[in-house]
Every structure is written in C-alpha cells, then in structure tokens.
Write a structure and sequence with these properties.
The protein is an alpha/beta fold and 332 residues long. Helix content is 31%, strand content 25%. The protein contains 9 helices and 16 strands. A hairpin with a 2-residue loop joins strand 11 and strand 12. This is Carbohydrate kinase PfkB domain-containing protein. Keywords: ATP-binding, Carbohydrate metabolism, Kinase, Magnesium, Metal-binding, Nucleotide-binding, Potassium, Transferase.
C-alpha cells in the first residue's frame, strides 16, 4: 500500500506579494494597495493543492535554517502536508519570490530568488529512496530546483512505478541562467521520464523551440488557423511533446481552458458539454484523443501565484471551485 498518494519534489518560496492598480514600467514608481506575505513556490503550491483535493501528500524540498523555513513547515503542517523530507541548510536562506499583481486583472510579474531550493541534491533523493520514501502513486515536479535533481527524481519515480507529472516552469533557455541552460540540456531526458507534462501556452512554445527540428513557428501552424477556437500550433505542441516521450501532454490556455492528448479508453460514454473532441487529419494518434476542456466562467479574477491568496479569496463560488477541482483530479 502506498504511504502517500502524491509526492512533490520542488520549491518552497516565501512570497512577498504587492497589489497595485497599475504595474510599473521600467524606472517607474507606483503606489500599491496592499502587501501580502505568504507561502509559495511551485512545489509548495502543488503540495497544498493536492492535499486540499484529498490526497495524502509529502513535499520534498530544502529551506534555510531561518524563520522563513520554520514558518513554512508550520504552515504546511496545518494543511496536513508531510514535511519529513524538507531538508535544512546553513549555507543559504529559504527561497523567496517578489510578486507584483495588478489588482483589477490579475496580471503579475515575478522575481524568484531560489536560494536553498537549488541545494536539494541527487544525494538527498537517493537517501529518501533507500528509506522507501517513494512508495507513492504520483510524483509532481517543476523547474525551480536543481535540474539534475529534477531529472533524477523523475527517473527514481519511474523506476518505482509512479505516475510522473511535470509543470515545466520556468521554461528552459539555451542562453539563460546556469539552471535554465542546464534544464535546456537535460530537457530530452526529462521529458522521456514524464507521463503528464502540462505547460501553459507560452511555456509550450518555448519548450518546443528547445527540441531538435521543431517547425512550430511554420506559417501553417500560426495563430490564424484554429480548431475549436485553439490555434493549431498549440495543438501541434501536444504532438511534439508526445514525440519526446511524454505519455499524456497537456497545454493550459488560460481563459480558453486546456487541451490534452489522452487515452481514448478513459473518455466517458457521455462527453460533458464543456469538453470538445478535436479531430483533424494531421492530428491523428492511435488509441489517443485530443480534447479541449473549456474554462469555467468566473465573475472575478483570482491570482494563483501564492496559495495563501487563493485560500483567502472567497469570490469564486463553491460550484466554480468544484468544477476546477474535478478537472485537476482528472487530468493531472
């Protein structure tokens, strides 16, 4: 029997979120509405989200030996996330993120300082594996820790029979930071070890540009060609990710929902009204189907960068949250 339903290997960042009516331009000073100090990082956010969906969840990460790290563990304990595999280091501080959010529309700009997140090591993962820690069902990863640790975690999980899920953000860059460049180099191996890969539309385009012989920018796959309201080049992204070994690629499209390449066998006999099957002769995959899940309509925008903000925001109805959770469980 699995000890956990979900293991998340990823980042923990103290989020300093500033809300403002207008995002500042270069060199510009604007007044903000409020400051929220919360707990974030893609790894921590995933672990809390999975726990709120009812899963038994453990987070694997690293913090500094500081007050931010202590507060993080206390907060995760309150949610019921297992923190036994959150290591401490005296060599640096807990990771932090500085987030500026437009109050009316939810658009944001983020600067992340990884700090201790980058010190989570392959040796840390091996030590957990020897203790049988990876007795689970699902592993979630992102690109906010050491690239070699992310790859090794995915490979260890696959070896132990886990379903692997990757949120490939921030996206790799050939000429970016040291970590972004290393993710670029390791990307083929990372995707090969991934069952579900779920970038957003911008990240998907950046990912496929990292892959050899990618013609994603060819005119025939431009924005002007759409199927069910989705630009064909985003649909082709599913194909390229599948060719790299991703079992079930997903691309999230913001207000336009998401598209996914899933096993035809798991489709229900009666397709919900907000799920459309996309058919095209150029997009034909044996035993798999492309679906477009339309996003639910909400009255106001909620920023989802900092999970503290999500929990504090009561503007979305219970029905809307329930629909969002249903699709989270179904496809990730």
């Amino acid at each position: 029997m699995s000890v956990f339903d979900v293991i998340v290997v990823g980042s923990l960042n103290t989020d300093l979120s500033v809300f403002t009516d207008t995002l500042p331009g270069p060199g510009e000073t604007v007044l903000g509405d409020k400051l929220v100090i919360g707990f974030g990082g893609k790894g921590a956010n995933q672990s809390v989200a999975a726990r709120l969906l009812g899963g038994r969840v453990a987070l694997v990460g690293k913090t500094g030996c500081d007050d931010f790290g202590y507060r993080f563990r206390t907060n995760l304990d309150k949610f019921g996330v297992n923190t036994d595999a959150i290591f401490e280091t005296k060599d640096t501080t807990t990771g932090a993120a500085f987030i500026t959010i437009e109050s009316s529309g939810g658009e944001n700009r983020i600067i992340v300082i990884p700090s201790a997140n980058l010190l989570l090591s392959v040796e840390d993962i091996n030590g957990l594996d020897k203790k049988g820690f990876f007795s689970s069902r699902v592993l979630l990863c992102q690109f906010e820790i050491s690239p070699s640790t992310t790859l090794h975690s995915l490979q260890v999980a696959k070896h132990n029979g886990l379903i692997t899920v990757l949120n490939p953000a921030p996206p790799p860059r050939k000429d970016g930071t040291k970590e972004e460049t290393e993710y670029y180099r390791l990307l083929p191996k990372i995707l090969e070890a991934t069952d579900y890969c779920c970038p957003n539309e911008t990240e998907a385009m950046q990912l496929v540009r990292c892959l050899p012989k990618s013609d994603v920018n060819a005119a025939e796959y431009g924005h002007e060609i759409e199927l069910d309201g989705v630009a064909k080049k985003y649909l082709r992204c599913l194909s390229w990710l599948a060719e790299q070994g991703v079992r079930y690629p997903v691309v999230t499209l913001g207000s336009n929902g998401l598209i996914a390449l899933i096993a035809t066998s798991i489709l229900p006999p009666r397709i919900p009204n907000d799920v459309k099957i996309i058919e095209h002769p150029d997009l034909n995959y044996p035993a798999k189907t492309i679906i477009h899940v339309h996003a639910p309509t909400v009255s106001k925008v909620t920023d989802t960068t900092d999970f503290t903000i999500i929990l504090a925001d009561k503007r979305n109805s219970a029905k809307e949250r329930g629909r969002t959770q249903k699709y989270s469980l179904k496809f990730t």
